[in-house]
Write a structure and sequence with these properties.
The structure is a homodimer. Chain A is of the alpha/beta class. The first copy, chain A, folds into three domains: 44 residues, 434 Repressor (Amino-terminal Domain) (Orthogonal Bundle), CATH 1.10.260; 118 residues, Response regulator (Rossmann fold, 3-Layer(aba) Sandwich), CATH 3.40.50.2300; 123 residues, Rossmann fold. Chain A is 41% helix and 15% strand. The first copy, chain A, contains twelve helices and twelve strands. In chain A, helix 2 packs across helix 3, helix 5 packs across helix 11 and helix 7 runs parallel beside helix 8. The termini of chain A are far apart. At the A-B interface, helix 4, helix 5, strand 2, helix 6 and helix 10 of A face helix 4, helix 5, strand 2, helix 6 and helix 10 of B. Strand 2 of chain A pairs antiparallel with strand 2 of chain B, so a sheet runs across the interface. Chain A binds a DNA duplex through helix 2 and helix 4. Chains A, B: This is Substrate-binding domain-containing protein. Chains A, B: One of its GO terms (molecular function) is DNA-binding transcription factor activity. Chains A, B: Keywords: DNA-binding, Transcription, Transcription regulation. Chains A, B: It holds the Pfam family Peripla_BP_3.
DNA sequence: TTGTAGGCGTTATCAA
DNA sequence: TTGATAACGCCTACAA
């Protein structure tokens, strides 16, 4: 491999000069700098990351820890984190929490041992992130005190409910999957908050990880719309509705969260509340970057608004006429 | 940070002795070795990856290149590659091909620059992987000459068709999404091969990336079963069938590929042909490991059998009685 | 069995 | 403007 030293030898100059010419730091005459750069290009010189890391104490690598890499959100997040990291000159090393708190601690440990400069972590449900030697950007939910940046799940919940109320829905079922998830809690809470504020005529909340909620009972209770805490649960409900011959969105509107890839392939396609993942990735990286470069001001924890994607699983309620949203505020 | 040097100083021994004691290579008296290890533990010593990489020329890091990190297969592959890599002491750096050949070359380049020891790559559809300085494990399809290890997509295709023939189906629609994909080509070809061999009474192949195939026309043509090249397409068809009130699996059986996460949440749940991802990851890593450790024999390219997962979207054809599979071989 | 010393490729300090 | 030199932390002949 060609090194700074071999270039120095080839050109009969010192390594320091080569280093300066290539990095543009020290003063080197334009003419010599040009010759050095040219030669470096010719021999295909690339600095050794190991040597640089050893000298500078920085690896230029960030870690990404996910609760479970088969988490459906992982691909999009990985995609955006990688892009954001790359544009700042960082590489991304992945690690899997293996779905438990111990695994999460181990994953962080492994990354730190590998010399990452910082870590982006999506913590496992219901865990507190353990402190480390390197800066940590936590992507979770506003209600997690350790949170660095996240989607505004609560606002997302309001958005989902609000959008359905705008269409005229008044009786809701709010369906979550796992009550230990702060993310899902916030989403359901946001929806409930919107209903309370705008005078929905009552709603039920149910948490169910296995079976789908009893749709027929819900319909009998006058429910015309369901807000689910994730697209996967929405999928379950949509399928259930179709086998029960409940028309969607005619008889029942359903909305999910996360904008998982299958949503647009469903028939009816799934309306959903999508996290602004590029923005989240951007902020997580800005945060780490600020901490790593010793910036005077570190970005404070922040939440990123979610985005409504209306597709075909939501529509006007059949039973009653569309009411003017303005009038319906009790 | 504690280093080999600081430990040597603390204990009044030489750095070489510490290094030997910790690595167990050179001869060090048991007693001294014990003291050194104990002290190392106490001060929380961990070797510097940068220094070790600089000295040994190996980073202990592998790259993982995907055509697009939002590819639905990515999570499971990343999960298993990371696990397999970790158990061999490697970390995994991700890179995104940004969905084109140029991006793919750039991704490889970036990883090599970062000093990875080897790369696992899932090539972009229809591209040939460019040669590099580091060993490359290619995960694609047997029909790609550069392939290192892959699922046996062709056998998977036979499996899908065979399983449906066992149930008594005879007329098939084989539906693919992208004919440029070697993977999908192999799957469809495998299914066709099985039908030809076992005397299906004819089948149509269609390639469609946007609209779903015309189900009514297919049914009119006597089709009772559809083999799709991916679960996403199967999902589209299932949804389509439900809106057209075509009973699945009563009137029509549908099977997909890849065992994507949503499949089990559908109603009816989706039968699928699943790649044995843990085994594929294992072999990809064995291959790289062999090449990196200069092993005498490098594992030859190999294909890993796919696994049938029968759920509820496949069943006996309605029209005709179940025929004995043995008798049905023409 | 233990210690000395050199070097991996960079960066940075200080002289020239 | 340029060069000599010393680290960074580790490994490994080779010498004691």
């Amino acid at each position: 491999m060609s090194s700074i030293k071999s270039i120095a030898r080839d050109l009969g100059v010192s390594t320091a000069t080569v280093s300066n010419a290539l990095s543009g730091k020290g003063r080197v005459s334009d003419e010599l700098a040009r010759r050095i750069r040219e030669h470096a290009g010719k021999v295909g010189y690339h600095p050794s990351p190991a040597a640089r890391a050893l000298k500078t104490g920085r690896s230029g690598i960030l870690g990404l820890v996910m609760p479970n890499l088969t988490n459906p959100l992982f691909p999009r997040l990985a995609h955006n984190i990688e892009a954001a990291a790359d544009s700042r000159g960082f590489g991304v090393l992945i690690a899997d929490s293996r779905s438990d708190a111990a695994g999460q601690a181990a994953a962080i440990e492994r990354l730190v041992r590998r010399g990452v400069d910082g870590i982006v972590i999506v913590p496992h449900r219901g865990t507190r992130v353990t402190e480390t030697d390197v800066p940590l950007a936590v992507i979770n939910a506003a209600s997690d005190p350790a949170n660095t940046v996240s989607a505004d799940h609560r606002q997302g919940g309001r958005l989902a409910a609000g959008l359905l109320m705008d269409m005229g829905h008044r009786r809701f079922l709010l369906a979550g999957e796992d009550p230990r998830s702060e993310v899902q809690q916030d989403r359901i809470a946001g929806a409930a908050e919107c209903l309370a504020r705008r005078g929905g005529t009552g709603h039920r909340v149910c948490w169910t990880s296995e079976a789908a909620p009893d749709l027929l009972a819900a319909l009998a209770g006058g429910v015309t719309a369901i807000v689910t805490s994730t697209d996967l649960l929405a999928l379950k409900l949509l399928s259930e509705a179709q086998t029960l011959d409940i028309a969607v969105p005619g008889r029942l509107s359903v909305i999910g969260f996360d904008n998982l890839p299958f949503g647009e392939h469903l028939r009816p396609s799934l309306s959903t509340i999508a996290p602004d993942v590029p923005e989240i990735a951007h902020r997580a990286l800005s945060y780490l970057d600020a901490r790593l470069s010793g910036a005077a001001e570190i970005p404070p924890p922040s939440v990123v608004p979610m985005i409504a994607i209306q597709r075909d699983s939501t529509g006007l309620p059949q039973e009653r006429p569309v009411t003017d949203p303005a009038r319906s505020v009790s």
